[in-house]
Design goal:
Number of domains: 2
Distance between the termini: 37 Å
Number of strands: 22
CATH superfamily of the largest domain: Alkaline Phosphatase, subunit A
Structural class: alpha/beta
CATH class of the largest domain: Alpha Beta
Strand content: 15-25%
Length: 445
C-alpha cells in the first residue's frame, strides 16, 4: 500500500504523543463498555477524539508488536518474530521515528519493560533520547518499571523540549497491566460485585480485580501526562494516539497470558486518536483496523505537502487519516495476525541470515475480514472459523476438516500470504541473562 502526504495544510498537527500500554484489553476499558470505570482519563481522551472499536495487533508479543507498529510491517517482514530478536539488517524498512527525524522532529522514548530494551530491539537508534531506566525487580531481575517511574521523566522531557523550535515525537510506554498483576488497592474502589461473574472461581475473580486495578493505576498516570500537555498549551498542536501492543487472556479458554493464542481478548486492542482539528466530540469507527495502520496515519496527518512534490513511502498498513479528520468510510480489508512457538533457546547470531519461510510456519496465524475470523493452528493442523458477531467469546468455532476443499483453499491462502511476506530472520540479540529475564516474564519456555 502506498502512502501519500496529501491532506490540506490546516489538518497538520505539529507534535505527536504516542502512548502504548502493554497487555491492555480493549474490553476492560470503560469507554469500550466495561462495567468497571477503570479508565476515566482514557475515557476523556476518547470523548475528545476518535475510538476504533475493532483494532487488532499483528502479533501478541511486546517487542515484535512495537516494531510492527513503527515500521508498518508484519513480523516476518522486519524479522523480529519473538522477543529478544532485533529487526533484520538485510531489510531496512523505514520506521516512524526515523521518518519524523528526517522531517526535523526531536524524538524521545520512555519504555518500561525488558523486551523493549535497546540491546534487544535496537529501537534506540531511531530516537534522539531513549530512556530505559528499569528499576523494578521482578523475581531476580530489574526487568520493568512502574508508571510512577516512567511518567515523571517523560513529563520532564516534555517540559524541557515543548518550547523548542523543532516539533517533537514523544513515545511513552507503560507495562503495568502485564503479569504479575499487582493489586493496586487505591485504584480498586469499584462497587462490590462489579464485573464479577457468578460462574468464576475466586482465583480468577481476584486475578481480574488485580488486572483492572493495574489498568486504573496506569490510567491515572496517563492523566498526568495529558494534563501536562494541556498545561503547556500544547493540546491544539499535538496529535495524540493511544493503543496497546496486545491484550491478555485472564483465564478464558483455560489460558492465562498472551503470546501463544490468537483469541479476541489477546489480539484485539484499544486504539484512540485525538486530532486537534477533529476534537468536536466523540466518534466511534467500527471498521476493523490494524496496528500496522498507526505509522502511515501519523505520517499522513503531519505531512507537509510541497507544491510539485510528494513524499511517499510503502507500508503494509493503510492511512486512517481521512476517516479521522472527515467522514470518509474505511473499506473493510482483511486483518492478519501471527504468533510463533515459544523458544526453548536462542540460536547463534550466524543463523540470522536464514529466511523466515525456510523455518517453520507460525504456530498459529490467521485473518479476519468483517466478522469472519480464521485461526490456523499449524502444530495440530486445526483450522477454526468464527463469526465474532454471533460468537464474540469464541466458544463455538466451526472446525474445518483437513480433507475438505474449504480447508485446503483457506490454508493455502494463509501460507501463500506468509511466504510472500517472509524475509530474512532478525538478529538474535538476547544473551543468556536476557533469556532468563524473558523466561521470568513468560516469553521463553
Amino acid at each position: 500500500m502506498l502512502f501519500f502526504g496529501c491532506l490540506p495544510a490546516a489538518a497538520h498537527p505539529k507534535n505527536v504523543l504516542l502512548i502504548t500500554v502493554d497487555t491492555l484489553r480493549a474490553d476492560h476499558i470503560s469507554c469500550y463498555g466495561y462495567s468497571r470505570r477503570t479508565t476515566p482519563h482514557i475515557d476523556e481522551l476518547a470523548s475528545q477524539g476518535i475510538r476504533f472499536s475493532r483494532a487488532y495487533t499483528v502479533i501478541p508479543l511486546t517487542g515484535p508488536a512495537h516494531l510492527s507498529l513503527f515500521t508498518s510491517r508484519y513480523p516476518q517482514e522486519h524479522g523480529a518474530v519473538r522477543n529478544g530478536t532485533a529487526p533484520s539488517d538485510e531489510r531496512k524498512y523505514p520506521a516512524l521515528p526515523q521518518l519524523l527525524r528526517r522531517r526535523g522532529y526531536q524524538t524521545a522514548a520512555f519504555i518500561s519493560a525488558w523486551p523493549l530494551t535497546a540491546r534487544l530491539t535496537h529501537l534506540d537508534r531511531w530516537f534522539d533520547h531513549y530512556d530505559e531506566n528499569l528499576n523494578r525487580r521482578y523475581q531476580l531481575f530489574n526487568s520493568s518499571r512502574y508508571a510512577e517511574d516512567v511518567t515523571p521523566p517523560a513529563i520532564d522531557w516534555l517540559k524541557k523540549h515543548s518550547g523548542a523550535s523543532k516539533p517533537f515525537f514523544l513515545w511513552v510506554h507503560y507495562f503495568d497491566p502485564h503479569s504479575p498483576y499487582d493489586l493496586r488497592s487505591a485504584y480498586a474502589n469499584w462497587p462490590e460485585g462489579s464485573a464479577a461473574n457468578p460462574k468464576e472461581d475466586s482465583d480468577r475473580s481476584e486475578r481480574v480485580r488485580a488486572y483492572d486495578s493495574e489498568i486504573a493505576y496506569t490510567d491515572h498516570h496517563i492523566g498526568l501526562l495529558l494534563k501536562t500537555l494541556d498545561d503547556l498549551g500544547l493540546r491544539g498542536s499535538t496529535l495524540v494516539a493511544l493503543l496497546a501492543d496486545h491484550g491478555e487472556s485472564l483465564g478464558e479458554h483455560d489460558y492465562v497470558g498472551h503470546g501463544r493464542h490468537l483469541f479476541e481478548n489477546i489480539i484485539r486492542i484499544p486504539m484512540i486518536w485525538r486530532v486537534p482539528e477533529a476534537m468536536s466530540g466523540a466518534k466511534v469507527i467500527n471498521t476493523p483496523v490494524s496496528i500496522l495502520d498507526v505509522t502511515p496515519t501519523i505520517m499522513d496527518l503531519i505531512a507537509q505537502t510541497k507544491s510539485g512534490s510528494r513524499r511517499r513511502t510503502r507500508f503494509a498498513g493503510r492511512s486512517l487519516a481521512a476517516a479521522l479528520t472527515g467522514n470518509t468510510q474505511l473499506p473493510v480489508l482483511p486483518i492478519r495476525y501471527v504468533t510463533f512457538a515459544g523458544k526453548k533457546g536462542f540460536a547463534p547470531n550466524w543463523l540470522s541470515w536464514l529466511w523466515v519461510h525456510e523455518e517453520d510456519l507460525p504456530s498459529r496465524f490467521g485473518r479476519i475480514k468483517g466478522n469472519a475470523k480464521l485461526v490456523w493452528s499449524t502444530e495440530d493442523s486445526q483450522l477454526a472459523s468464527y463469526d465474532v458477531a454471533a460468537d464474540p467469546l469464541e466458544i463455538h468455532p466451526r472446525m474445518l476438516k483437513p480433507a475438505s476443499s474449504a480447508y485446503r483453499i483457506e490454508t493455502a491462502g494463509l501460507k501463500n500470504w506468509f511466504e510472500a511476506t517472509g524475509g530474512p530472520a532478525g538478529s538474535q540479540t538476547a544473551s543468556a541473562r536476557d533469556a532468563e529475564v524473558l523466561k521470568s516474564l513468560g516469553y521463553v519456555q
